[in-house]
Write a structure and sequence with these properties.
Distance between the termini: 46 Å
Structural class: alpha/beta
Helix content: 25-40%
Strand content: 15-25%
Largest sheet: 6 strands, mixed
Strand order of the largest sheet: 2-3-1-4-5-6
Radius of gyration: 24 Å
CATH class of the largest domain: Alpha Beta
Length: 416
């Protein structure tokens, strides 16, 4: 379990504080491993250090050691920014200090943590060197020593208790199913499919279906019609890769629920209503407007890449004019989002829920609409209302769609 649970499914515990207060020693003590380099030289930790562990009796977590937030100079500023970016992924933060602090920086950091709704535990480290200072803010504080291991067990127990009370993983698909239901998964095997394995969203969806005591049938799009004909009873749901929506929608009868992996992840990681609302922004786009394609992972672009080639092509064909597309890949969005008129985000399988919600909040603060790959593709192909019907919030989602004088039903489908 420790090595197989993806980081994107684990709660994050971040360790924050000044340089040389013992943050790296603390992650070593919490994991009982030599995870981070420890030295008396301030600024030893430069990049965040991630460690996936089993924090029993809770389960799998990621503990992150960060650079000191009082770092100096040009490189120091870059290290501080990386530490603050980690903060937005965290479910729990350990704010660490020793007897040498005046709490000025700690107050500022605590305010940022509160604004981002990160549960915070105070850690007064190095108590083996002298008396402990009383923190000037209302925070549970654990005196610790990574030398004598004093307080480490109590700190672990406190983290576990907080996670057990507050961390609730959203269901991916199991809340849409009943025991015994059949779900058909349409998985194209093309250039984008990794050789010898399925991609993470497909694997996670299969596991969630099994957790619902339901059955998963996996087919390629070319075998879908034949597979459906062989079934004695129709499936409860068909889930497809968004890239083949047009083929699958034509093959699946309208009395069978249909959606995509990307749309499931829009709901699982972010806020489905916000993504649906965001797709309406394509009506406001003008020639040469800047559109950001946001990929949460880094991958080698393919000749017909979904985010870099297909979505820009489909969107410009529908609008009838050219746009300026920019792609950002990996864990960071551009610092300034205001120049963009629309953000189109991938499913986000490689980032956790906290990070996706943070990205949505940043877009809202910059007043830039954000939508999702699957939602945009379904919208352009006139099937968005159909692929939302499986969700309990479908009626509410219909209310945020564009007016019917813009979005019209033609031949069983909804078109712009």
């Amino acid at each position: 379990m420790q090595e197989t649970t993806p980081r994107s499914l684990r709660p994050y515990i971040g360790i924050f504080g000044r340089r040389n207060v013992g943050k790296s020693s603390l992650i070593n003590a919490l994991t009982d491993q030599e995870v981070a380099i420890v030295a008396d030289v301030p600024g030893t930790t430069t990049d965040p250090v991630f460690k996936s562990i089993e924090l029993l009796p809770f389960g799998p977590v990621v503990i992150v050691d960060t650079a000191g937030l009082d770092d100096v100079g040009f490189l120091g500023e870059l290290r501080k920014q990386k530490s603050l970016e980690i903060l937005h992924r965290c479910d729990v933060a350990l704010l660490v200090w020793d007897d040498g602090t005046d709490f000025t920086l700690e107050r500022e950091l605590l305010q940022i943590l509160e604004e981002n709704q990160v549960i915070t535990i105070g850690v007064h480290n190095k108590i083996d060197r002298g008396n402990t200072l009383r923190a000037p803010f209302d925070l549970p504080v654990f005196p610790t020593s990574t030398v004598t291991k004093s307080g480490i067990r109590e700190l672990k127990a406190a983290i576990v208790e907080i996670l057990q009370k507050t961390y609730k993983e959203r269901p991916l698909v199991r809340d849409l199913l009943h025991p015994g239901d059949l779900v058909v998964l349409v998985v194209p095997i093309d250039l984008g499919a990794p050789k010898g394995r399925l991609i993470l969203p497909q694997v996670q969806t299969i596991r969630d279906i099994l957790d619902a005591e339901a059955t998963a049938l996996i087919v390629k799009e070319r075998e879908l019609v034949e597979s459906l004909q062989k079934l004695l009873a129709p499936p409860q749901l068909v889930i497809t890769d968004s890239q083949v929506f047009h083929k699958v929608a034509g093959a699946v009868p309208e009395n069978i629920f249909l959606t995509s992996f990307s749309i499931l992840f829009a709901r699982y990681k972010g806020d489905l209503a916000t993504f649906v609302q965001g797709v309406k922004a394509i009506h406001d786009l003008k020639p040469s407007d800047r559109v950001l394609i946001a990929e949460a992972c880094s991958h080698h672009p393919l000749p017909d890449d979904i985010g870099r080639i297909k979505i820009p092509r489909w969107l410009q064909q529908r609008l009838g004019f050219e746009l300026q597309f920019e792609v950002v890949a990996g864990p960071h969005l551009p610092r300034d989002l205001s120049p963009y008129r629309l953000i189109i985000h991938c499913g986000g399988c490689m980032i956790n829920q906290k990070e996706m919600i943070y990205r949505l909040r940043r877009a809202q603060e910059a007043k830039v609409p954000m939508t999702n790959y699957g939602i945009l593709i379904a919208y352009l192909q006139g099937i968005l209302l159909r692929v939302l019907q499986v969700f309990p919030e479908a009626k509410m989602l219909e209310e945020v769609m564009v007016p019917t004088n813009v979005y019209q039903r033609v031949g069983g489908k909804w078109f712009l």
